[in-house]
Amino acid sequence: MCRQFRRITVGMICCILFPMLASCAGDTTRPEGTTGGGEASTSVGKLTEPENTVPPSGITTEAGSLPAGTEPTEPLPPKTFRLLATGHSNIHCSVRYLTSIAKDLGTDMTVGLVWRGDATFKTYTDMGRLRDRFVYRKSNDSDFTDATAVSPSTFLENLADDEWDVISVNQGFLYSSYPDSKADLPGLIGMIRDVCPDTPIYHNLGLAYMDGCDNALFRQEYNGNTDAMFETILRDVSENIMPNPGISGLIPTGTLIKSLTTSEYRDRIYVADKVHLGDYGCYAAGVLWYAALAGASVEALEWTPDGVSAEYRDFVIGLVPRILADPYTVIDFGMREEESGQNDDLKGIKLTAEVTIDYTDGGYMDKFADFFLSENGQNGIDVSSVNGAEGRCIWAVTNDIVAQYPILNYSLWGEGISKICITRLWSDGVGDIELPVTTGAHSIDIAALLAEQEVETLGYSYISVYTSSAEPVRITNFSLSGTAAE
Length: 486
Fold this sequence. Notes:
The chain is 28% helix and 21% strand. With 486 residues, the chain is an alpha/beta fold.
């Protein structure tokens, strides 16, 4: 059974946030018309009826600068916390480092993760009583990269699995303009309330894809413009979601990430597909989620994952309270794409479903007739085999191309891929180097790995994907680039 979340008084929250905000440069006054829901993240566990609007001019920004230092405040971390995070594939990104961040700040946080690719509110109400529809994993010490297998439990059973302090909801970020959020959300809230009548429900404000993302729907609906997509998300959240009295608070992940993409760290926030978050983006999201849910200071945070700098940690710690205080305002740090200096290297070569005899363009080398390969319209490919028998698709590129673009980028968002291998020896699998097949985004220096193969080569490198699924399995951002997509 779920339990009612411990109340945190407004006075306690003020003691945490106001000293940090007072030292922040720039005006943090809420834009006209953004009330109620913007304050929900500082009224943890308190049911509210926010009245939210986004200014007609669209996305509101303010000049970005961070204070040189802030007076330390006494953190008020809960000893334990239990979160059920529901959504679609990108929910992995928000909770990936959450348990580690919480532990460093003194909280034993258990996270239950429920997800299904491209899920909307209606997906949960339509399928919530059915088995084998959602991935479910619960842990207090996991990065959830292994949360890939569909669970035999139902969503209703996931809701009843623990005494959750907060349940978070969201839907596929690209779909904010498609489902009727105002009509679909009450059904999901009602389903949750049948099992957890008192548990606060928070909404996770979604991400906008970055400019340059070649997702077909992103180009079709928003003309490939990240600002247009984010404005749609803001309006959907403020007009259709936060006014619902069943929503207790807001986790403004999208606003934080949008702000970070105007900073010097912009090239490290997303992976190369410009849809899912990389290590830097996941870390920032985790810090924000902890502050928003636990109602505690994050100033004492010291932990960072491998590869994430202490300077970035301090930058995020200074930014998070500003986003929580004004969750619909993007902090503009003035760094634009043309100033970032990595984009040419990140373009690289996209591995496609097109059959080719040119080993320099990323085309598919058609060797196995029982293997299906097709574009999926989501910046990637779908692979499957006949009748579930194991099959293999292969890309072949020259070693010169690998030397120029040594990083293999790929993202997996569902089970079905049994193995991904690389080799410079055409030997039907003998001596192949296996790569990770865990859920999420990967950027791997295959040139370095292949250099360790002591084999005679004809001048080609081979990338093979194996599956035993008769149903299409999605791979997104399957590409070679010159710089790692962090």
